[in-house]
Amino acid sequence: QLQLQESGPGLVKPSETLSLTCTVSGGSISSSSYYWGWIRQPPGKGLEWIGSIYYSGSTYYNPSLKSRVTISVDTSKNQFSLKLSSVTAADTAVYYCARQPPRIVVVPAAIIPGWFDPWGQGTLVTVSS
Amino acid sequence: EIVMTQSPATLSVSPGERATLSCRASQSVSSNLAWYQQKPGQAPRLLIYGASTRATGIPARFSGSGSGTEFTLTISSLQSEDFAVYYCQQYNNWLLTFGGGTKVEIK
């Protein structure tokens, strides 16, 4: 059974870079054609998609965060990572990682990320000095 | 960006009753819509994808319908474990977006 687990600092100072890792167990990131995504949820609020990376390394990012986000994959460790730079208190949230099946789009030709399943348990990151 | 709007924000239902949740897209998403359930302190759980296909292990009392811009999640007979927040999400466009959620509470 595929499981995902987020890890990283629970407290980050304003203007610094938030770095999280998602470790995948029960399956290989590189041997299956999936997207791997990050989602966040501020306390008491709804869900926001951050970005997704294909097993091949291609990425899609939410335009609202694109200038500050980098998602990468380390197949040797069966992990993928999130970096969010120049954080502020508005970035305080529970951060989730999840697997996504690909969806083939004919026009324009593309393979884009689909729904999220399964999810990691989430990790709370607080931005505060 | 495709905006997803869920209604109502809160739904008060008695156990055993039927619950009907709505999700509207600002433009057509075809059938590229998923539903999730989230309980306090837990990660969301996939219920439905493709607008109407139940995910593995999801009870038959959960059903999804709709296409284009109007979607519905129906819980036929609410059990105690179904009281939670429900989110819809479109994946028709690469810019993935979620609805604001509907909280289903005990009446």
Structure description:
The complex is a heterodimer of chains A (129) and B (107). Helices cover 0% and strands 50% of the residues of chain A. With 129 residues, chain A is mainly beta. Chain A starts with a strand and ends with a strand. Chain A is globular, with a radius of gyration of 14 Å. Chain B is mostly beta strands and 107 residues long. Helix content of chain B is 0%, strand content 50%. Classes of the chains: A mainly beta (129), B mainly beta (107). The interface between A and B is medium-sized, with 23 and 23 residues.
The 3D shape of chain A can be described as: globular
Largest sheet of chain A: 6 strands, mixed
> Could you give the count of β-strands of chain B?
11
Alpha-beta classification of chain A: mainly beta
Based on the structure, what is the oligomeric state of the protein chains?
A: heterodimer
Strand content of chain A: over 45%
Count of DSSP E strands of chain A? 12
Beta content of chain B comes to over 45%
